Protein 1
Amino acid sequence: MNLNELKATAERMVAGHRGLLAADESTGTIEKRFKAVGVASSEETRRAYREMLFTTPGMEKFISGVIMYDETIRQKTRDNVAFSEFLAKLGVIPGIKVDKGTKPLANSPDEKITEGLDGLRERLQEYYKLGARFAKWRAVINIGTDIPTHYCLRANAQALARYAALCQETGLAPIVEPEVLMDGAHDVERCAAVTRTTLKIVFDELYMHRVALEGMILKPNMVVSGIQCPRQAGIEEVAHETLRVLKECVPAAVPGIMFLSGGQSAELATAHLNAMNALGPAPWKLSFSYGRALQAPSLVAWKGQVANLAAGQQAFFWRSRMNSAACAGAYTPRMEKAA
Ligand code: 13P
């Protein structure tokens, strides 16, 4: 393991108030997102859409890295430059999603287990050759009656840790993503409790698997109320609860925590991140690794039309800029009016 390389990558991912664009939607997921704005999903429309995002002028001031999907990291710009090469030249680190999605967990079918460990070492080696310098694996934890079980948390944490160890062996900084979903009527306290137990078990397994914490990034959910919960926690409460749980569970050796947006609106995801950074110094950098919260306004502006390219890029640029301001604790909702 080359710890210096891993550390340098992880530190660059969170440096300078920048964050990640999660553009690693699987073919099925991007098809759903396209359908919502009336765009047919084909290899070429997916390529054109990702090219629009990646070639947004100036986005590199706010975006440190891009998480790609297997198809995307093999694609090129119109000018025939591989996306990973194009991004690296801008100083944006190419990354790759390497899990193979979730399946029902045997003997507890209401829960999910993430697959993709078989053959992973060889796939990681290929992605490194294709230019990737970090990777992502997402575990999904559902809150419901009697779930999550300890069995589910342990099984998913073990898979995350085995993935992270393999990444570090290959020279890829692993993003460790245990996502506690917001679906459900549970309150913010329940989300805090489940997130706490999840992170405790994840860091226990990372330790057992000898993962170097200095060379990884944590991508957690924020501690929020379930979507159907009648009482929705406010922005300050979410920030306090999230930081409290993270401080209890995440060692200071981890250089950065880059949140997922998980279905929050674009502006709320920015406000939550800002509130946490405004609370003052934390042991780790706090940044974003948003999918929907960075892309949704851009996708709506684009709608698959060449004529809308500039509008799509402007929307992505704006969300990137607002989230970068949130990394500095310098965002105010009033800034949105300038858009
Ligand atoms: P969202 O920000 O849309 O949750 O996506 C981030 C991600 O990469 C989920 O795995």
Protein 2
Amino acid sequence: MATGRKLMRAIRVFEFGGPEVLKFRSDVAVPIPNDHQVLIKVYACGVNPVDTYIRSGTYSRKPFLPYTPGLDVAGVIEAIGDNVTAFKKGDRVFTTSTISGGYAEFAIAADDTVYTLPEKLDFKQGAAIGVPYFTAYRALVHSAHAKAGEIVLVHGASGGVGLAVCQIARAYGLKVLGTAGTEEGRNIVLQNGAHEVFNHREANYIDKIKKSVGENKIDVIIEMLANVNLSNDLNLLSYGGRVIIVGSRGPIEINPRDTMAKESSIIGLALYSSTKEEFQQFAAALQAGMEVGWLRPVVGPQYPLEKVVQAHENIIHSSGATGKMILLI
Ligand code: NAP
């Protein structure tokens, strides 16, 4: 409880654990931006699976307690700290990270993690850009070195990252195959750049993919659930094919021999291993996508801040993704 300072609504985590450790508070002090920081009035914040891993305390990066989760905010600059030249009060922005936490009415972010949000995208869409699109771009362009004309399988295409990969891959001239677990998800995947879509809950869908494109024809796989799919992925790849592991929630057994004849690559990805220069490069490509119009974030389930516990339950135990989950602040 703070006195003498403006107060705001925010989610606070006082101990690591299940979704129930997310506590709604209306007496959190509005933070003040320091050097090279901005204060953003938050209208929407993306919910990312990583928010749940961090909250549970099992993730490699642990914040000091108590903390407010949330990386991808969209809103308006409320105030700037010293030495901020790129932004002024009133600018519409989105972020790829925050310092004080995005599940709140106001959030502090370092100025090099803040980007201009074009007028044609609303704040909900703005909250769906950060982690998903920067991850998608890193996976496809930086890690996989995907080239126009290649075939990409977006293994898990209906969520935040998957739809972003579909849009980018289509704009870059790849043939795009996606997978999703529900009919609604598959329709959204087809509307967002995929040429074909498959049901990853169907027993024989891998055979259907092979039947559609031929044996050993997939150049790049962007993998959202490697602990389930990695062995199958190796059997789908072309010679010189690459699997980029974006998501994995456990171990899996593979046969290393499956990588030998085709000289396949299995490449792990961590968005936050990107350098500042790489973030700037990804941002430039994505800004172009917003200007030209191929970057169109798909907003899925929306929850008010007070319902954050439900949001964290549902993003992990989803009955089927239909775009990016966001919190409305
Ligand atoms: P999301 O919005 O919750 O989407 C999850 C996706 O996984 C959905 O498309 C879902 O499809 C799909 N999926 C479910 N079962 C699957 C299966 N058997 N095979 C393939 N896909 C399956 O999550 P997200 O934000 O897109 O993130 C996806 C994953 O990437 C998460 O594990 C996240 O932690 C990770 N990630 C990692 C990084 C990094 O830096 N490495 C960055 C961002 C995200 P249906 O719901 O239609 O079944």
